[in-house]
Amino acid sequence: MNRIPQHIAIIMDGNGRWALEQGKPRSFGHQAGVDAVRRITSECTRLGVKFLTLYTFSTENWSRPMDEIASLMSLVLSSLEDEIFMKNNVRFRVIGEMERLPKDVQEKLQETMDHTANNTAMQMVVALSYSSRWEITRATKMIAEDVKAGRLNTDDIDEALISSRLTTNFMPDPELLIRTGAEVRISNYLLWQIAYSELYFCDTYWPDFMEEDLHKAIEVYQSRQRRFGKTEAQVEE
């Protein structure tokens, strides 16, 4: 318990395939995925995780069929319940291009963020209409504007400055990244932030991801030595 990751990021993959394998529409899988979010959020809070970042909807997902997008947006609205946040003392936050979302979704997201702002046990961060390339491009433009305006010199640009301009600037980088659903790729998610994260891939579809699956991922994380470029001997010293 003294080596619980303080920040876990998850790519919640497999909702649609889970539903199709049961002869159900993809929207049925997304609804089941919300149930998984509830139980994993509760368990992460119980374990002492401080930040849980969930890849919910990427900028590339806007190219999906409009009926699926509409279903997902409706699900976002219905899933923002007080119970999941207030019961667990969880603060809710969003990263991504919120301005691209429907107005009613934007308003509900903001209302939930405001309502949970004083919760302190854990921060649950939803990546919604998010992509890492968009985020890095946005940060680069912000820095370029500051240089052009004379507020920054090029010598001022370093890793810390770039990190401060990312949408994740309020939290540490993830120690552990989990991807469910049997795919082994990052899918444009937190590319800057996961430079030294431990990666864990599993075949379990997200709707079937249980507390025991989370424990297994954490156990694998705990079995690894995080060297950050050093040798094994240096770390052990």
Can you walk me through this structure?
With 237 residues, the chain is of the alpha/beta class. Helices cover 43% and strands 15% of the residues. It is built from nine helices and six strands. The protein has helices spanning 15-20, 26-47, 66-79, 82-86, 103-115, 132-148, 159-164, 211-223, 232-236; strands spanning 7-11, 51-58, 90-95, 122-130, 176-179, 198-201. A six-stranded parallel sheet has the order 3-4-2-1-5-6, sandwiched between helices. Helix 2 packs parallel to helix 3 (66-79). The longest helix has 22 residues, at 26-47.
Oligomeric state? single chain
Please write the string of helix (H) and strand (E) elements.
Answer: EHHEHHEHEHHEEHH
> How many alpha or pi helices?
9
Global Rg? 19 Å
Question: DSSP strand (E) fraction?
Answer: 15-25%
Query: How many DSSP E strands?
Result: 6
List low-confidence stretches: none
In short:
The protein has 237 residues and is α/β, with parallel strands linked by helices. Helices cover 43% and strands 15% of the residues.
Any chance you could write out the topology, listing elements then pairs?
Elements: E1 7-11, H1 15-20, H2 26-47, E2 51-58, H3 66-79, H4 82-86, E3 90-95, H5 103-115, E4 122-130, H6 132-148, H7 159-164, E5 176-179, E6 198-201, H8 211-223, H9 232-236
Parallel strand pairs: 1-2, 1-5, 2-4, 3-4, 5-6
Helix pairs in contact: 2-3, 3-5
Question: What labels would you give this structure?
Answer:
single chain; alpha/beta; six-stranded parallel sheet; 9 helices; 6 strands
